[in-house]
Amino acid sequence: MAPNYVMIVALITFICFSLSFGDDAMLPTSHNNLIAKPNCNESCRNISIPFPFGMTPECILRDQFLVTCNHSLNPPQPFLGNSSIEITSISLAGQLNVLKLISRDCYRDGIRTNRTNLMISLPSLLTVNNTVNSFIAVGCDTYAIVQGRYTKFGAKIEYPSFITGCMSRCYSIDEDDTCSGVGCCKTSLPKGAWNVTITLRSYYNYNYTVMKNDLSCSYAFMVDQANFNFSKSYLSSLQNTKKLPLVLDWAVGEDKCKIAKTNSTAYACKSNTSYCHDDSNGYRCSCMQGYDGNPYLIDGCQDINECVDPQPDYRCVKNAICTNTDGNYTCTCHPDFSGDGYTECNRDNPQRKIQNIFLIIGITAGVALMVIIVFGWSYTAFQRRKMSMMKKRFFQENGGLVLLQRLKVEEGSSNTNTVKIFTADELEKATNGFDKDRVVGQGGFGTVYKGYLKDNCIVAIKKSKVIDRNQIEQFINEVLVLSQINHRNVVKLLGCCLETEVPLLVYEFISNGTLSEHLHDKLKASTLSLDIRLKVAAETAGVLSYLHSAAYPPIIHRDIKSVNILLDKNYTAKVSDFGASRLVPADQTELSTLVQGTLGYLDPEYLQTSQLTEKSDVYSFGVVLVELLTGRKALCFQRPEEERSLAQYFISSVEKGHLFDILDDNIVCDEGNVGQLKNAAVLAQRCLNVKGDDRPIMKEVAAELEAGSRLKHSWAQIDQHSEEIESLLHDTQPLGFGYEYSNKVSKLIV
Ligand SMILES: *[C@@H]1O[C@H](CO)[C@@H](O)[C@H](O)[C@H]1NC(C)=O
Ligand SMILES: *[C@@H]1O[C@H](CO)[C@@H](O)[C@H](O)[C@H]1NC(C)=O
Ligand SMILES: *[C@@H]1O[C@H](CO)[C@@H](O)[C@H](O)[C@H]1NC(C)=O
Ligand SMILES: *[C@@H]1O[C@H](CO)[C@@H](O)[C@H](O)[C@H]1NC(C)=O
Ligand SMILES: *[C@@H]1O[C@H](CO)[C@@H](O)[C@H](O)[C@H]1NC(C)=O
Ligand SMILES: *[C@@H]1O[C@H](CO)[C@@H](O)[C@H](O)[C@H]1NC(C)=O
Ligand SMILES: *[C@@H]1O[C@H](CO)[C@@H](O)[C@H](O)[C@H]1NC(C)=O
Ligand SMILES: *[C@@H]1O[C@H](CO)[C@@H](O)[C@H](O)[C@H]1NC(C)=O
Ligand SMILES: *[C@@H]1O[C@H](CO)[C@@H](O)[C@H](O)[C@H]1NC(C)=O
Ligand SMILES: *[C@@H]1O[C@H](CO)[C@@H](O)[C@H](O)[C@H]1NC(C)=O
Ligand SMILES: *[C@@H]1O[C@H](CO)[C@@H](O)[C@H](O)[C@H]1NC(C)=O
Ligand SMILES: *[C@@H]1O[C@H](CO)[C@@H](O)[C@H](O)[C@H]1NC(C)=O
């Protein structure tokens, strides 16, 4: 496995290297600048001879461009044709730099010794450049004539001739080194001069010259002025100079481009990327911009790789990437830079980068947010649907349909006092989402919240603990029945909500708290006079009486205790918490139930037999009555053992005649109310009878309390009553109120 892998890697590496070498190797071959025709020598010595010039007839375009390379010379020298004009360079821009012999005319003692009058028989396409060259004659008895032909368009056949010259004499040789007529004269040449003949003459054969040398000479030549500065010394030193530089212009044809192009075989601009331009002598060719090479050859103009070989007009800025194209190039900026590549390439400033990053982050965040929103929306929609489904389910489970049905029936019976069905949302808003701060009470059956309905109505909302689903119908029944209890001393049930898992009950809100709070708070208890206490007792008894006798079917509250008796600001009692209440079917007087209630208030008989009767409420009421009289709690484990159960403690105390010892300190005993107190104590005693049958019915209790609170009549029969109770107690069987209770009872009995 491993060797194979290594081999593959090696192979890939090798291929990559080969390819890259191949590329490198190909570059030079593609960059082949043609100079001469194929199979033609490109140079003589180190002087390049570009086409249309050439050194053999096959290698030239026209006869005029023949160059003779004299290999007999050392080093070999190229000559123009078979002339003595020595070529130093040929440029495709249309110029030839040549060295040309100078003309001379020498005299000794008035006798001409030697004269070379030179004719430069330039072909018509080669002309003397008249801007850089001048005709110069040097000598002290000299006149020089230059004549020839010059090219002029429109007169192609009959070339016009020109003749000009200058003369120089030396009367003094103290002149400066300028060619200004003394020892040297110069004249300009006409444009396009060719086939030029120079003639040198002397007026006096140097008979009268100041300079009386052995040999006096005159010289005449056309010269590139940039390469020739006259000096007095030249009068003698030019003797040794054979050749002087001259600049010639050349054209490829005599015609103008327009005409030349008409004969495609003769047209010299052979490269398809070349162009023609007119010249004073004819026309020449050039490579198009972006190309370089020899325009006179097919494919002679080659694309310039400006990126490798930047031209003077190279426009890419410093940080740009140059890409070569055919005949041109493009400039682009590096990825990290901004700009067009031609005018600027600026490194992106970090701020912009950060901006970009922020932009990207922003977009990403936006997209993410949208996704979240969409998901969230669908999720909440799903949740909402689920919730509403749940609400529906709960409503059904909680017997909502049955209730609705029943309510409809009730409606028919023109009962205005019906239950309102609240929605879960309504109650949630009312209690600020069942806020902890809104809790006003907490009991065995649930939690009570204070709530504000939309119409600013203050309500108490009771959230029950888990409800027995099997008793739904009964619950509905209770709700209906309770809603119909229109008793001023019963906390009014306003409505319910069945959309939650456990039904919520909505009651009128009672402002002043529970009776328990008032009794067991020292400060509050001090304001509870006996009258108030008895009034509360009477009202509570009235309610129970009503429930037991007036309501149909009768209702057993089952959980009467001071905590469940609320007080409004006028100390009006309001009985609440019917959570444990039971409706007693018409044909029964007692009900078999699970023992339910609050220790301390619980009927011992009911505890033992599990048979619920109205008398259970009577017992519980008795405890409340005792609580009202004594201000003590129904059950308090902090007290000594015999005092723990208030009911028993009360009974034993009354039996021992200690009633006034256990009365609440806040109850002021005086002549006026002793009877009242005693009467109440006796009533309580009766209610607390262990045997239910021996307890008075609630109607009786209520009547007695009401009567007592209205008129404070004398209580003469108290003693008789107490005797009765005593005897009853002796009959009592030990009760199932736990071990402690029975112990107490037996103690009591003993
Ligand atoms: C080119 O020049 C060399 C000498 O430099 C000569 O031997 C050769 O024959 C020439 N070839 C042509 C085609 O003129
Ligand atoms: C040609 O060679 C000569 C010396 O042999 C040198 O002086 C001259 O500059 C060279 N010309 C070119 C164009 O290379
Ligand atoms: C080459 O130069 C030599 C010596 O100057 C001369 O004798 C000969 O004729 C020249 N050849 C040509 C072809 O010009
Ligand atoms: C130069 O060549 C021409 C023909 O091309 C000929 O007529 C002439 O005599 C030659 N001159 C010399 C000096 O060889
Ligand atoms: C004249 O020129 C010829 C050839 O250029 C030369 O041989 C001769 O010596 C010269 N005569 C004088 C007097 O310089
Ligand atoms: C003479 O040479 C100069 C410099 O090379 C050039 O600018 C000019 O065009 C030439 N003149 C003619 C008539 O070709
Ligand atoms: C060049 O000039 C000479 C002398 O003036 C003359 O004989 C010859 O015909 C001229 N050549 C041309 C082509 O005009
Ligand atoms: C120059 O002077 C010599 C003698 O000194 C004389 O023979 C000759 O004729 C003179 N030449 C001229 C043109 O005057
Ligand atoms: C001619 O003189 C000019 C300055 O006057 C100088 O720049 C140039 O090099 C001189 N040329 C020669 C060939 O001496
Ligand atoms: C075109 O040029 C060629 C070669 O120079 C010549 O033979 C031919 O006659 C010319 N054709 C025309 C139409 O001028
Ligand atoms: C020039 O000709 C060559 C083929 O010789 C061709 O590949 C190229 O595209 C041509 N260029 C233009 C600008 O026509
Ligand atoms: C080369 O490209 C530049 C920029 O695109 C343009 O301005 C120019 O004209 C082009 N040059 C040629 C010869 O096409």
Description of the molecule:
Helices cover 32% and strands 23% of the residues. By secondary structure, the chain is α+β, with helices and mostly antiparallel strands. A six-stranded mixed beta sheet has the order 26-30-31-29-28-27, with helices on both faces. The chain has a five-stranded antiparallel beta sheet with strand order 8-7-16-11-14. A hairpin with a 2-residue loop joins strand 7 (103-108) and strand 8 (111-116). Residues 6-31 and 712-750 have low confidence and may be disordered. The structure holds 2-acetamido-2-deoxy-beta-D-glucopyranose (NAG) (12 copies).
Tell the overall outline.
Answer: rod-shaped
- Characterize the main sheet: 6 strands, mixed
- CATH topology call of the domain at 512-750: Transferase(Phosphotransferase), domain 1
Strand content: 15-25%
Termini, distance in Å? Answer: 104 Å
User: What is the count of DSSP helices, taking H or I runs of 4+ residues?
Assistant: 18
The molecules bound to the chains, other than polymers, are: 2-acetamido-2-deoxy-beta-D-glucopyranose
Regions with little confidence, pLDDT below 50 for 5+ residues: 6-31, 712-750
Overall mean pLDDT stands at 79
Number of strands: 37
Task: Assign the CATH superfamily of the domain at 512-750.
Answer: Transferase(Phosphotransferase) domain 1
Domain Protein kinase: 434-716
Catalytic activity: L-seryl-[protein] + ATP = O-phospho-L-seryl-[protein] + ADP + H(+); L-threonyl-[protein] + ATP = O-phospho-L-threonyl-[protein] + ADP + H(+)
Subcellular location: Membrane
Transmembrane segments: 357-382
